Each structure stands twice: as C-alpha cells, then as structure tokens.
Amino acid sequence: MKTNKLKYLCILGAVTLGLSSCDDMFSPAIENNLGLDYMNQNASYAEGVLGNGYTRIPCGSFPFNEVATDDAVSNDNTNNWRKITSGTWAADNNPAERWRDCRSGIMYMNLFLSRVDQVRWAEDKVASKLYAARERGEAYALRAMFMYYLLQAHGGYDAKGTLLGVPIVTTPEDVNSQFNMPRETFAECMKAFYADCDSALALLPMRYSDISSVNEIPALYKQMGADVSTLNRVFGGKFNGRMDGTIVKAFRSKAALLAASPAYADQSGTDYKAAADYAAEVLDANGGLAGMDPTGWHWFSNTAEINGLKDGINPKEILWRGQKSSNNDWEKDNYPPSLQGKGRINPTQNFVDAFPMANGYAITDAKSGFDPAHPYDGRDPRLAAFVVLDSSKVGSGDKEIYTHVGGLYDGIDYEQGTSTRTGYYMRKLLRQDINLEPNVNTKQDHYTPRIRYTEIFLNYAEAANEAFGPEGKGGHGYSAYDIIKALHDRAGVGNDYLESIKGNKEAMRQLIRNERRIELSFEGFRFWDLRRWKAPINEPAMGIRKVINADGSATYNKVEVEKRNFADYMYYGPIPYTECLKFSELTQNKDWK
C-alpha cells in the first residue's frame, strides 16, 4: 500500500531530526539521512532513534483539558477543548487524540530494540554492554508508556461489546510489513504493557546515582563486569530525567488503576488489589507516608525550591519532571487582564464548590458552617491558593483583583474574550513574582511535573478503598483513610468528616475522588478521571455573579456559563477516522462515526 510505504519512509527520515526538547539528555542528531546501518558505529545517531520517544512524551506539558469538564471554561473562542463541549467531538476532530504520536513512538522503540545490541556504544566493551542494557530498558519503558496513553485515549467497546485496545506491534516495520492489523483486546494490551514494564525493570536502576563502593553495584551490572567508574559512567546521576525503574513502576500504577476502573474493569484483566499493590511499591520505596512532601500541595509556589533546582534533581514531591526554564508563558495566558494577562482558564463555580470548609465538611453539609453570604470565609486553604477569588491579591505588586459585576477589566461582565466568564481566574501553576508590564516583563523559573507523588498516593487510596475498604491495608503499612488524613493534615484541613465516614466505602470513594479533583486540578487529570469512573460528564459549567449592593453587602448568584453535551459513547475516545479509512481491519469504538 503506497500510504504505508510513505509512512515508513517518513519515519526513517525523521530519525535524524534534531531533538530540541531533549538537548539536555541527547547529543544533537546528525543532519543528513545516513541510513539505519549507520547506527551500528555511531552511538549518537542511535540515541536519536531512542530520543524520538522522549520527544513524544504526552505528559510533557499541561493540556488544560479541564476546559472540557465541569472544572473550567476558557474565554478563548478558538480553544479546541471548548469546541468539543457542544458535542462536536468527533473521530476526525479529537483534541484528545494520541494515536499518531504514540503509535509512531512505538515504531521508533521497535526499531531501536531491533538494533540496540549491534550499536558500538563505547570503545570499552564493558561500558558498551552496560549502555546497551540501559538503553534497551529505556526503550521498553517508553513503549510501555505509549501503550498506557493509547489505552487511556482510545481503548473502548466495539459494537459487539468487546473491550478493545490497539494493535500490538513489537517488531520493526518496513515497506513490506502488514500494516492493516486488527485491534487486540484491552486485556491483551495490558499484558503487553506489563511485559514491557517487567523487561524495563530487569534492566534499569530504580534511580540514577553515582556510587563510591563496589558493594553498591547491582548484581546484574556486576555480572557484566562493571566497576565503580564504569557504573557511574553509564548509570550515574547525570542521567536523571531519563526513564528509570521508579518511573516505570509509577506508570504501572497509573495503567493498573485505569484498567481496574469502572469503565474497563469487566474485561481488562486487572483489579483494584493489583492497582493498590503497584502504587504501594512506588510509595514504599519513597518511605511510605513519611515520604509525603509537607509542601507538595503547593509545589508550584515553592519559589526558592524551584529556583534552586539543578539538572536531574527532583523536589520531594516530584517523581518525574521536565526541564526547568525561565519564562512567563503561563502567566501571560492566565493572569487577569489588568495585569496584562489573557485570563484564559476560568475555574468554575462547580470547582469552587468542591472545596470543603476548613473543618473538612462539604459546604452542603449542615455541620460545615458554610455562610452563603460570605462563601469564601473559613474554606479549605487550597481554594485561595488555587483560584483567584474576588478581591484576591495577584502578581508581584499584590494587585487586588475585582471579579464582581462592575469590576472593570477583571470583572465577569467586562468584555467577552478578555475577562473571566465565571467570576474566577486560575492561580494554581502561576508564579506570583512576575510582572507582565511591557516595561518590566519579568520571567521566572518553571517546570512541568510529569508525575507527582501525590498522584501515586491518590492512586493507592482509590484502589485500596475498593480492594480493602477504607481502613484496610492489604498487607501494606497504610490505608486509604491514612492517605486522605495525611493529605488533609498537610493542607490544613480538618478531619471530622473523614472520621465520620471511615467505615463507609461509598462515602470514602466520593471523598477520595474529590481530593483527586482538588489536588491534581489543572494538571490534565479530570477529563480522563470522569471517563474511567463513568461519572456524570454533562454537568453544566457554572459561574458566580457577585453584585455589590448599595449598603456594601454582596449578593451571589450562580449562573450557567456553558453547557456540556457529551453522549454516553464519549466515555471512550475514538480511533482517528482517517486510520479507519486506511485500514479495514481497524474496528471503531461503538457509535463513533
């Protein structure tokens, strides 16, 4: 098929493209297309093939897909996520599509794995053997990662009720390969995912670090002839940021939780016990509950910590992250207009209402003490840290922001496309020591967490509650209850409500889901969480119109800002329409056209 040959030739040509987002980890790629056999004698060329996997990491930046959930709207009419909320999400118009990049990533990894042992990685034979082992492990890890993201975005039921994943391809493809392959079942894809994780874990260290004693050399590497110097050369701390065993185990936790969730559990072959056990492996290696970062809930505002980060070093909260860079991009997009921002992402009233009172009770509970006339008083401290409320102080000059009706540039009624649509602006992720005034235009250091330990804690809490009950530990040192209590304690939230439900699995489930909504907000989780839970996805996005009365009091009126129009089949994302046109063996998910 001509299309397939072109696809393959394009990928071969792309092997030699520069790896601009991974310059810190890979040598610049060679500019001329020298052919694949050149890999054997040129390690940097071979690294270019592996590096193509790193350039396709789906969690490399925040997608802000909360705009397509009940947590946020955008004031940008061209926002792709905003377009799909009207029900126009389609197989040929899918902002959540990961098929092409992840499938291409797998093709690169298959190509690399077929040749990694032929590459002359170093003049020293022991070092060359160690490099081959490490890079093979990285390729298995990346291939597993791509499978996870493909299943999350494209796994679903066909018209016959079979839960399908994607075609499983583990060998390199050429112009003579059979590209027209059917999708394997979701369960078979999970088996392939776990097998790649196992292969990666057999080769990779848990963390890259320099050692000083021969006693610190793992048995596998010792059998290969490694000494201290050679081990540091190949597995030293300078490689932090590349795939390691801890990252692999974290992805195994993420994938197992996905597979055990209501949307997939009946045919995935993975249950909540397995998901809890996999999450606990990651947490136990980090000290269990004692490893929870006391300041992890506001990692984005730990400015001294961020400024002091060096290459390869992670804060306590961060399991894996992207590189640090100096910019003001998020602030330009999301600061209020009076501070020269575009105010793009507007948290909803739905999201604000999800924050409990400081005593831990939901605002709808009579025991909460919530006062509708003063709705932000006595709330969970995370609310003011994550959301710009009316009269919040923002930016390097602590400018007071007025979002109420008549609040001028920042008010809900000012001008469509520039000011908030909900009465709120986003504060989370944004540094407050930035001044966007054109004559100042300051920049500060930022980084994107790819995996936070808080996510793994919440993975465990969700799975453990389902598998062992709220206080069951399943052989581990902590329960779902223990995790939520620790998260509340570090954020300054009371636990009276938690104590009252610790014997109720259903109530604990809702609390855990709410904690996940809050703690991982604006980091790209809720769009997928609602779907894997098969939770309601059509809740209208609400805002608040605060009106200042003549006597100085305020009136708060909830208003509908934007409808959500998702059909039930949209719990599962589609296979790209063009792929189904090209390949007759590809079965589309049910009801997608």
Automatic annotation (TrEMBL):
- List, alphabetically, the GO terms of the cellular component aspect: cell outer membrane
Which InterPro entries does the record associate with it? SusD-like_N, SusD_RagB_dom, TPR-like_helical_dom_sf
Task: Give all residue intervals belonging to the SusD-like N-terminal domain.
Answer: 66-209
User: Where does the record place it?
Assistant: Cell outer membrane
Alphabetically sorted, this entry's keywords are: Cell outer membrane, Membrane, Signal
Note the superkingdom of the native organism.
Bacteria
One of its Pfam families is: SusD-like_3
Domain annotation RagB/SusD: ranges: 325-592
Task: Identify its protein family.
Answer: Belongs to the SusD family.
Name listed for the protein in its UniProt record? Putative membrane protein
Organism of origin: Segatella baroniae B14
